TrEMBL record:
Cofactor comment: Binds 1 zinc ion.
Gene Ontology molecular function terms on file: ATP binding; DNA binding; zinc ion binding
Names of the cofactor(s): Zn(2+)
Alphabetized Pfam families for the sequence: ATP-cone, Zn_ribbon_NrdR
Keyword terms, alphabetized: ATP-binding, DNA-binding, Metal-binding, Nucleotide-binding, Repressor, Transcription, Transcription regulation, Zinc, Zinc-finger
Protein name per its UniProtKB record: Transcriptional repressor NrdR
Chain ranges of zinc fingers (unnamed): 3-34
Keyword match Metal-binding: yes
Originating species: Faecalibacterium prausnitzii
Amino acid sequence: MKCPYCGAEESKVIDSRPTEDNERIRRRRECLNCHMRFTTYEVVETVPLVVIKKDNSREPFDRQKLFNAMLRACAKRPVSYETLERAVSSIEQSLFSSYDREIPSVRIGELTMEELKKIDEVAYIRFASVYRQFADVESFLDELKKLVGDRKENQ
């Protein structure tokens, strides 16, 4: 670590502790050349997720965009913001733990539908109808039949 006072590259760590938000490590250092003390912060470097869209274009993963899509699906439904936040966090955790840095949008859509199915069936159907772009009433009814069948199996 380069000393901000004399530019020397050798220093020793005197004290280390996490910051209040537990997102970084605060380190007090002393320059071995001029003996001045300074503070550095260490953060985890994350590799951003890239979403591969259906047209093969790529864009950075946007947690807020996912949250907004789920919020629209849950409009006028008895679903709290906290529940949606937990669902988005769960999806995000699944994506980050997959080791793939490029995620197909289809995978995000499937994870979103899984979470919405657990939260609210109406929100699930709303999201699925837009996401799957049902071509006709028959394909919509097929999805409803699957949902009813899943509900009967879980009872």
